[in-house]
């Protein structure tokens, strides 16, 4: 049976290195299979997060040959076999051990986003929404919170700006702003607290999204447009001056 | 001993749909709530649910109502479901689904803007509220995003090793942090077990690593009864090729949306396997099945939508008759029934899953599928109203609890189960905690004992590799206690499990407690062994075939066994079993079953 060489990061906050392991290749194998094989045979204590092994839970994000991907959805036959496959933890987050990083910051950010505040139900007890309106947001609801977009976003990765909430949570805001039932206005906090202005639409997040969500085009840019419309449009500014309306009033 | 201690009125163990819903409800009643999650929040096995959640909203077909949902669930459970649970379930389901919408869930819509419903196996009318084929993700994210604002303390990546007792009542739980390996004590007046299933007992399963029967085993060791553990659901359509994805689920929604099953001769074989009980409501010709697909209200449902136990056994029978697909399953074909656009819109994650993992375009070619362990109908024996077990202060909901689904669960009834009984467990656990006057005490001796068990794998005595014992256990169950069972094999299984217990006691883990996967496996093994024994023991003594329990030596369902449920309980350090009479259904409900 053909063997593949893996170079897997082993270590913790203090020290670590890439260690070599040889794994027999089988048909349809994905990188997570190889990691499990290494765990079961050579390195029982190898730390890795995973759950569903079908690309639905978003637990097993790592950098494979330097590229952020889900280990469970990366088939061996898409990788070059003539050199070792490197598997390293996501770089943006503090290391816990081996392939596991501390992603708790993301859960803290999520708490800052106010929940949906729906309008009252109709007389017959239902909420009516059209498929067309819902579909646009359903795309964002596909997010599996793998945080690969948060990992790769250079605003946080290179510039270490942590009051910017990052692509994952901008699409969460987009689901609320575009939600047919929501009654809140969220534009001022997008601008002032969540710092949407930091995004300069390099689309790195969109490129790594395993769910192929159009993060930049479909969520962030429309949000930016709404923020710009509310706060930076000179005609709107003049209108508000004359009518006494506020920029973040929901229309 | 100085361990980290947290104190709550109600402690919820498990943060999937049931656990989250329970925590939200308990918190709303003003008690202090802790929620323990084995993984990161939002990663629980609920995300894997695909097809939808069943509730008789009657939006897509207004002939539907709770009575019909009751009827389908009891019949689908082959008469073994607890009638009171099913009644509560069918009545409360629509409210729970509507509530999710209030909290932000975005279901697919009907043309007039209401929640759309899809067809599924065993449901008479289109009944499943859904979001494409990723309904579980929608549910968990909705509950998560709502739940984090309800004042619940959430403990992520924390595994519970044992429940703590004050005499014969619940006093809390003892666990460890995955990251640091340090121990943590939760003092709580009431505990809700919402830990999900046991799929990891078997080699081929749709379940994630978390599903190691924790709740069932914790309850058992605390003295609670387990019910119906022989009823394990093998989902008929798991992926079978390539080997690396064997067991991964292919949603029943494929069949609900028109997919058909074929053997290697190209025959649509399900027409040959229609049980008498369902003959009156199942199409018996391809022509009628096609009319159903075209939405003819007078056409009966295609046989591919028979209940899961029936379809799984039929695929197996075709394979044994030499008509299986190349890798030992059947062909599931939707490409010939629906347009590529329709398939991609209604089944996006199936399209994605097969394209990436199976190198196959499901809009062009049939999928190869076969049975995979999916769900356990049995679990902690609970009161139908309160979700309380027979241990004071201990509650259970979702897959960890037993009774609702009887001998076979209908697709779409699980997600609804989570929110209906999750809410009830939260409510009654909170009320119990409020009513408790005296404070709870946990003895030092008890803590010392649990700690000893938890660090045993690091002791020097053993040599066994935890992964190897784990795999051997899975093979043993797959071989001897799987989809089709027979007396001699079940007996062998129980003997083998004793040997595996001895080996598990000698497991040796390398390294330290810092995020050590080997150690985590070693501790999960205890629970898997307990539930494996409960499954095999219950299966051995049900000498009939019914729903998810198929006996080669007793192929028919019998009246004698229809009257009894199997209860498993610990006595003097040994697992004991007994058959108890099933509670009698009132006449007015019996009339609904016609």
**Can you tell me the residue ranges of chain A where pLDDT is under 50 for at least 5 consecutive residues?**
none
Overall shape of chain B: it is globular
Distance between the termini of chain A: 65 Å
Helix run count of chain B: 18
Q: What does the largest sheet of chain A look like? A: 5 strands, mixed
CATH superfamily of the largest domain in chain A: Alpha-helical ferredoxin
- State the end-to-end CA separation of chain B: 62 Å
- What is the CATH superfamily of the largest domain in chain B? FAD/NAD(P)-binding domain
Anisotropy-based shape of chain A: elongated
Q: Averaged pLDDT of chain A, please?
A: 94
- CATH domain class of the largest domain in chain B: Alpha Beta
Strand fraction of chain A equals 5-15%
Describe this structure in words.
The complex is a heterodimer of chains A (251) and B (594). By secondary structure, chain A is an alpha+beta fold. Chain A has 2 domains: 3-101, Beta-grasp domain (Ubiquitin-like (UB roll), Roll), CATH 3.10.20; 104-243, Fumarate Reductase Iron-sulfur Protein, Chain B, domain 2 (Orthogonal Bundle). Chain A is built from 10 helices and 7 strands. In chain A, the strands form 2 sheets. Chain A has a 5-stranded mixed β-sheet with strand order 2-1-5-3-4. In chain A, strands 6-7 form a two-stranded antiparallel ribbon. Chain A is elongated and about 75 Å long. Chain B is an alpha+beta fold and 594 residues long. Chain B has 3 domains: 4-232 and 374-435, FAD/NAD(P)-binding domain (3-Layer(bba) Sandwich); 236-373, Succinate dehydrogenase/fumarate reductase flavoprotein, catalytic domain (Flavocytochrome C3, Chain A, domain 1), CATH 3.90.700; 444-575, Fumarate reductase/succinate dehydrogenase flavoprotein-like, C-terminal domain (Methane Monooxygenase Hydroxylase, Chain G, domain 1). Chain B contains 18 helices and 18 strands. In chain B, the strands form 4 sheets. In chain B, strands 1, 2, 6, 7, 8, 9 and 16 form a 7-stranded mixed β-sheet that branches. In chain B, strands 15-10-17-18 form a 4-stranded antiparallel β-sheet. In chain B, strand 8 and strand 9 form a beta hairpin. The radius of gyration of chain B is 23 Å and the shape is globular. The interface between A and B is large, with 61 and 69 residues.
């Amino acid at each position: 049976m053909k063997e593949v060489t893996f170079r897997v990061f082993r270590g913790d906050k203090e020290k670590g290195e890439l260690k070599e392991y040889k794994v027999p290749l089988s048909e349809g194998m994905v990188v997570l299979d190889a990691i499990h094989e290494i765990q079961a045979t050579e390195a029982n204590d190898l730390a890795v997060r995973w759950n569903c092994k079908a690309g639905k839970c978003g637990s097993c994000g790592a950098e494979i040959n330097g590229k952020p991907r889900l280990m469970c959805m990366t088939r061996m036959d898409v990788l070059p076999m003539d050199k070792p496959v490197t598997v390293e933890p996501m770089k943006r987050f503090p290391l816990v051990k081996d392939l596991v990083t501390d992603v708790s910051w993301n859960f803290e950010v999520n708490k800052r986003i106010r929940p949906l505040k729906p309008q009252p139900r109709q007389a017959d007890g239902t909420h009516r929404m059209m498929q067309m309106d819902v579909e646009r947001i359903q795309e964002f609801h596909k997010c599996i919170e793998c945080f690969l977009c948060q990992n790769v976003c250079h605003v946080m990765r290179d510039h270490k700006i942590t009051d910017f909430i990052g692509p994952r949570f901008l699409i969460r805001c987009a689901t609320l702003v575009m939600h047919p039932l929501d009654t809140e206005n969220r534009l001022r906090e997008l601008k002032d607290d969540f710092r949407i202005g930091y995004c300069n639409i390099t689309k790195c997040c969109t490129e790594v999204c395993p769910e192929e969500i159009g993060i930049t085009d479909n969520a962030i840019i429309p949000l930016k447009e709404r923020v710009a419309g509310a706060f930076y449009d000179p005609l709107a500014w003049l209108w508000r001056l004359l009518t006494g309306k506020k920029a973040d009033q929901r229309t | 001993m100085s361990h980290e201690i947290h104190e709550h009125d109600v402690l919820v163990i498990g943060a999937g749909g049931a656990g989250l819903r329970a925590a939200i409800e308990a918190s709303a009643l003003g008690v202090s709530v802790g929620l323990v999650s084995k993984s990161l929040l939002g990663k629980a096995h609920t995300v894997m649910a695909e097809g939808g959640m069943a509730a008789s909203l009657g939006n897509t077909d207004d002939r539907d109502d709770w009575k019909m949902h009751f009827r389908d669930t009891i019949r689908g459970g082959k008469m073994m479901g607890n009638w009171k649970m099913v009644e509560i379930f069918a009545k409360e389901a629509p409210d729970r689904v509507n509530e999710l919408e209030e909290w932000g869930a975005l279901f697919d819509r009907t043309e007039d803007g209401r929640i759309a419903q899809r067809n599924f196996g065993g449901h008479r009318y289109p009944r499943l509220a859904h979001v494409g084929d990723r309904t579980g993700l929608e549910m968990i994210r909705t509950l998560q995003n709502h739940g984090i604002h309800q004042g619940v303390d959430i403990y992520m990546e924390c595994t519970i090793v044992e429940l703590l007792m004050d005499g014969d009542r619940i006093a809390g739980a003892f666990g460890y942090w995955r990251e640091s390996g340090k121990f943590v004590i939760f003092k709580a007046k009431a505990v809700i077990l919402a830990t999900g299933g046991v799929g990891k007992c078997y080699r081929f399963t749709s379940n994630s690593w978390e599903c190691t029967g924790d709740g069932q085993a914790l309850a058992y060791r605390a003295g609670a009864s387990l019910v119906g553990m022989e009823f394990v659901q093998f989902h008929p359509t798991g992926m079978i090729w390539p080997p690396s994805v064997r067991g991964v689920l292919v949603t029943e929604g494929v069949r609900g949306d028109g997919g058909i099953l074929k053997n290697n001769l190209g025959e649509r074989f399900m027409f040959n396997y229609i049980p008498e009980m369902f003959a009156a409501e199942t199409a018996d010709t391809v022509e009628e099945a096609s009319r159903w697909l075209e939405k003819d209200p007078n056409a009966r449902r295609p046989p591919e939508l028979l209940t899961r136990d029936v379809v799984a056994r039929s695929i197996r029978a075709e394979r044994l008759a030499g008509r299986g697909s190349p890798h030992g399953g059947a062909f599931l074909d939707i490409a010939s029934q629906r347009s590529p656009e329709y398939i991609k819109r209604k089944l996006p994650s199936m399209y994605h899953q097969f394209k990436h993992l199976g190198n196959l375009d499901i809009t062009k070619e049939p999928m190869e599928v076969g049975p995979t362990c999916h769900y356990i109908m049995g679990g902690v024996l609970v009161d139908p109203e309160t979700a309380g077990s027979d241990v004071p202060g201990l509650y259970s909901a979702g897959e960890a609890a037993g009774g609702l689904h009887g001998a076979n669960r209908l697709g779409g009834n699980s997600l609804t189960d989570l929110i209906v009984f999750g809410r009830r467990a939260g409510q009654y656990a909170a009320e119990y905690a409020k009513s408790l006057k005296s404070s709870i005490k946990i003895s030092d001796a008890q803590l010392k004992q649990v700690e000893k068990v938890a660090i045993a794998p690091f002791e020097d005595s053993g040599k066994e590799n935890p992964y190897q014992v784990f795999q051997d256990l899975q093979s043993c169950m797959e071989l001897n206690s799987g989809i089709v069972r027979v007396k001699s094999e079940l007996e062998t299984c129980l003997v083998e499990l004793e040997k595996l217990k001895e080996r598990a006691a000698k497991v040796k883990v390398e390294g330290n407690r810092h995020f050590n996967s080997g150690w985590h496996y070693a501790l999960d093994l205890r629970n898997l062994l307990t539930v494996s024994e409960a499954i095999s023991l219950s299966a051995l003594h049900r000498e009939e075939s019914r729903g998810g329990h198929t006996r080669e030596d007793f192929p028919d369902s019998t009246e004698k066994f229809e009257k009894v449920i199997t209860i498993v309980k610990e006595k003097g350090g040994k697992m004991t079993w007994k058959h108890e009479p099933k509670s009698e259904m009132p006449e007015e409900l019996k009339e609904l079953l016609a």
